[in-house]
Amino acid sequence: MPYVLKIQLNNINEALQVGDTVYYTNSNLVGNSYEHSFNFVEDQNNLNFTKVGVVDSIDLRNNSINVSGNFNINPPSSGDYLFFTKDNIVNLGYIKGYYAEMKMISTENKNKSEIFRITLAADESSK
Fold first, then answer.
1. Residue 100 confidence (pLDDT)
2. Alpha carbons 65 and 76: distance in angstroms, whole number
3. What are the DSSP calls for 32-72, one per residue?
4. What would the pLDDT profile of 10-53 be if each residue is shown by its tens digit?
5. Are 55 and 67 in contact (CB under 8 A)?
6. 1/23: higher pLDDT
7. Total H helices, total E strands in the chain
8. Would you say the C-alpha torsion 24, 26, 29, 35 has a positive or negative sign?
9. Among 20, 64, 81, 104, which residue has the least CB neighbours within 10 Å?
């Protein structure tokens, strides 16, 4: 059954785009020595996360997103951890040029933040 779910958030990640896929999991699994990495290629039924759907629209003024899906789920509760993935077909670009700079900022000053993985694919474009 198709649906559109409006999710109200405190802060919207600036990397979130229309077309990204939103998931949620119990917040107790995040940050604790959770030994299973989220590998979206393997059998998703063995993992403890739920696919909510695809982002249709982002309302920055009201801090909400609309997510659409085609299946029955229990919607995330206020204590669940929401995260998203990018479409690999659309986001396959590489950095080209002689100089690249990245700045990472944590806007959450109250809780400890961790980075689990950062990857970069860069090709020298000319010499």
1. 67
2. 13
3. S-------TTS-GGGSSEEEEEEEEEEETTTTEEEEEESS-
4. 889 888 999 999 998 877 665 544 444 444 444 445 557 888 99
5. yes
6. 23
7. 0, 5
8. negative
9. 104
